[in-house]
Specification:
Chain B: This is Electron transfer flavoprotein, subunit beta. Chain B: InterPro entries: ETF_a/b_N, ETF_b, ETF_beta_N, Rossmann-like_a/b/a_fold. Chain B: One of its GO terms (molecular function) is electron transfer activity. The complex is a heterodimer of chains A (323) and B (263). Chain A is α/β, with parallel strands linked by helices. Chain A has nine helices and 18 strands. Chain A has two domains: 177 residues, HUPs (Rossmann fold); 118 residues, 3-Layer(aba) Sandwich (Rossmann fold). Chain A is 27% helix and 27% strand. In chain A, the strands form four sheets. In chain A, strands 7-11-6-1-4-5-12 form a seven-stranded parallel β-sheet, with helices on both faces. In chain A, α3 packs across α4 and α5 packs parallel to α9. By secondary structure, chain B is an alpha/beta fold. Chain B is built from seven helices and 15 strands. In chain B, α4 packs across α5. The chains are: A alpha/beta (323), B alpha/beta (263). At the A-B interface, α3, α4, β7, β9 and β10 of A face β2, α4, α5, β9 and β10 of B. β13 of chain A pairs antiparallel with β11 of chain B, so a sheet runs across the interface. The complex binds flavin-adenine dinucleotide (FAD) and adenosine monophosphate. The site of adenosine monophosphate has 24 residues of chain B, from α1, β6, α4, β8 and α5.
Chain lengths: 323, 263
């Protein structure tokens, strides 16, 4: 048998979207490998989760009733035990913050080669995984010459599985070694509140590292003012302390869906795109015409922002600041 | 106490580049300290400043070229450095996270640090896996994607925030010894001072081979091999405005007005 084991992810009572994408990816691989798709869910309301995960194509759901929320020590031990039992050819995990908090440990403990952040997987004689390098500038294919492999898949690359399956749901008991649980989750906090809610804006002027210096933020501020738009940014701008956290668009910031999103000096890294791909009209101002932001943009100007933005401010009757 | 910081030198690709076989042609690559590791170095140096007797050691797997990057870490306050390289590593086509973790594990065995700091990911390969794989390999506890660290040197537990998706942070207590993978924004990495740069010249960068670390050359054997590297077909169907900046701005303004944007 060449079975596939996918492990679902949930947080604070809800399965995360990537769980259903894992089912789709897992089913594709199970078909290619001519095996069964096993899905595991660990912690929280496992019975409720199991019902939800029982989508078309799932052969078996394993529930592990250990804890409420994610803890990597529990996950690592549980997935190891499940893998020992099921002996899957492919272990498919999410390339999320929590996925990356246990996948490398599980792979290492089981001596499985690990390929992270897969955006495509071909299953021939051996799995061939497509992943990006150099900030999406190139794609690579890596082949894994092993009988057993662990993969993490990028969220948003596979469609969510639909329908209702006829999976067998079975409880899986794990003998947790408590002495190996050496981390404790003590709470959660939402960050990035404050005066401005960028998720409300119709038009966002968004600034990235191309702005170079803190003083130059005045330029995009002036554009936002002139257009009556709201100012947002990519992560490095917030990391540098040039704008507050509530302005950050992306995976670890806010997900925005404005009518118009003007990305200025932003490359379009996957974690940024996660936060703005739903915008209606995307405009990019970026000197690098091959930057990944242009894969999404509807319109663009591949020129220097320090020339284009002042001219644009003037077009709308504003006055560019002296930098 | 001792803090070990894993510092990678990464390559940044120029806007225009060419591919040579399974790699980007060297002339289009510029090497620099990995962005995430700059924050890890700062976190280490802050612990050194906060405590008595805290030594901060950095470790890099990389060729001699990396010494320039390592000097930057030394100039920012790292006490001494280790650089692992030899002909086996040189000949390794695809240095995956498993191999890196195995090599770093040997350095951990040697140095016996209380805390290991890595970055969340390397900017070029973006495996995002080396730190956690290393922790498992050496039997340390760990936490991935740490954007806040509270730790008094000498204590048995560190309190961290893990930055989850969507602006949610998880608070976690982690028992030492531990590996923490550090996220950007956790602190404000300092610039090297002139004095720091001068001092860095006399600090040690100890070269080590796999053999010297007690590792067999087979540690570089990997089941994962790179078989293709290419520029992805552009999915772009963006309309690009052209001309002088004024002409570009003019067309862009028309478009924005069409989209309902009013001054
Ligand atoms: C776990 C994790 C979570 C993350 N979460 C987020 C997140 O929520 N949001 C986020 O944005 N990132 C996030 N990141 C970081 C992300 O990977 C990128 O590092 C970041 O998005 C890059 O920001 P940038 O595009 O501004 O900078 P860069 O990638 O450095 O791009 C700068 C761009 O500016 C262009 N440019 C330079 N000069 C000019 C000029 N004069 N005129 C015009 N263009 C110019 C360049 O061509 C380049 O494309 C996360 C990373 C990780 C690992
Ligand atoms: N060649 C290297 N030498 C030293 N540390 C490294 C090296 N490559 C990766 N690391 C460490 O592992 C982290 C994650 O890298 P990666 O798993 O390759 O994305 C980096 O931020 C570094 O701290």
């Amino acid at each position: 048998m060449s079975d596939i084991l996918a492990v679902a992810e949930h947080r604070r009572g809800d399965l995360r979207d990537v769980s259903f994408e894992l089912v789709t990816a897992g089913r594709e691989l199970a078909d290619a490998a001519d095996g069964d798709l096993h899905v595991a869910v660990i912690g929280g309301d496992v019975d409720g989760f199991a019902d939800e995960l029982n989508r078309e194509g799932v052969d078996m759901v394993h529930t592990v009733s250990e804890g409420e929320e994610f803890n990597h020590d529990i996950y690592t031990q549980s997935v190891e035990a499940l893998a020992d039992e099921i002996d899957p050819e492919l272990l498919v995990l999410p390339n999320t913050v929590n996925g990356l908090d246990y996948a490398p440990a599980v792979a290492n403990a089981l001596s499985l080669p690990l390929v992270t952040d897969a955006i495509d997987v071909e299953y021939g004689d051996e799995p061939a995984v497509t992943r990006e390098m150099y900030g999406s500038k190139v794609e690579t294919v890596v082949e894994v010459d092993a009988d057993r492999v662990a993969l993490t898949i990028r969220p948003g690359e596979w469609p969510p599985a639909e329908g209702t399956g006829d999976a067998e749901i079975s409880q899986f008991d794990v003998d947790i070694d408590e002495s190996a649980v050496r981390s404790t989750v003590t709470g959660y906090q939402e960050v990035g509140g404050g005066d401005v809610d960028i998720t409300d804006a119709d038009v966002l002027v968004s600034v990235g590292r191309g702005i170079e210096e803190e003083e130059n933020i005045a330029l995009v501020e002036a554009l936002a003012d002139t257009l009556g738009a709201t100012l947002s940014s990519s992560r490095p701008i917030v990391d540098n302390g040039w704008l507050p956290k509530n302005r950050q668009v992306g995976q670890s910031g806010k997900v925005v869906t404005p009518d118009v999103y003007i990305a200025i000096g932003i490359s379009g890294a996957v974690q940024h795109v996660a936060g703005m791909k739903g915008a209606d009209t995307i405009v990019a101002i970026n000197t690098d015409a091959s930057a990944p932001i242009y894969d999404l943009a509807d319109y663009g100007v591949a020129d220097d922002l320090f020339d284009v933005v002042p001219a644009l401010i003037e077009e709308f009757g504003g006055e560019p600041p002296a930098l | 106490m001792k803090v070990l910081v894993a510092v990678a030198e990464v390559a940044d690709v120029e806007d225009e580049f060419e591919i040579d076989g399974l790699a980007i042609d060297e002339q289009y690559l510029n090497y620099d300290l990995n962005e995430w590791d700059d924050y890890a170095v700062e976190a280490g140096v802050q612990l050194q400043e906060a405590g008595e007797d805290v030594e901060v050691v950095s470790v890099t797997i990389g060729p001699e070229r990396a010494d320039e990057t390592i000097r930057m870490a030394l100039a920012k306050g790292v006490d001494r450095s280790i650089r692992v390289w030899d002909e086996n590593l040189e000949g390794t086509e695809y240095l995956d996270s498993e191999t890196k973790a195995d090599v770093l594990a040997a350095v951990v065995e040697d140095e016996q640090p209380d805390l290991v700091l890595t970055g969340v990911q390397s900017d070029d390969t973006a495996f995002g896996a080396t730190g956690v794989a290393l922790a498992e390999e050496v039997g340390f506890e760990w936490a991935a994607v740490v954007n806040d660290l509270e730790y008094e040197p000498g204590n048995e537990t560190a309190s961290v925030h893990r930055e989850l998706e969507g602006g949610v942070e998880e608070f976690t207590d982690v028992e030492l010894p531990a590996v923490l993978t550090i996220q950007t924004g956790i602190n404000e990495p300092r610039y090297a001072s002139l004095r720091g740069i001068r001092q860095a010249q006399s600090k040690e960068i100890a070269p080590k081979t796999l053999d010297e670390l007690g590792l067999d050359a087979s540690v570089t054997d990997s089941d994962v091999s790179l078989t293709q590297l290419y520029e992805p077909e552009t999915e772009s169907d963006a309309t690009l405005f052209e001309g002088s900046p004024d002409e570009e701005a003019d067309q862009l303004a028309d478009l924005l007005r069409d989209e309902g944007v009013e001054a």
